[in-house]
Prior knowledge:
The protein has 91 residues and is an all-alpha fold. The protein has one domain. 84% of the residues lie in helices and 0% in strands. The chain has three helices and no strands. The longest helix is centred in the middle third of the chain and has 30 residues, at 36-65. The chain is flat. The model has no long low-confidence stretch (mean pLDDT 88).
Amino acid sequence: MVPFIEKALLFIIILRLISGSIELTAAALMFKFNDLEKAFYINTMLALVGPVVLIVTTGLALLGLAEKISMTRIICLFAGISLILFSLKAQ
């Protein structure tokens, strides 16, 4: 018997599997091309994937937990994510 799994959790799991597959594919492409410039370009593209996955998975989790988590915690989580994204741009 398959246990019940919430839709939000299932979407998060699928998104993380896709994200991991993208990372592995990028590593394989870097190995295949064996070129620092192309590896740098591929890595730059990955820099776009990471924050998007972070925001989407956090949003899905918060939607699933909306009734169980206080508004203060939700605001703190989004503030933390905003600070992470801001620090990435500040480099």
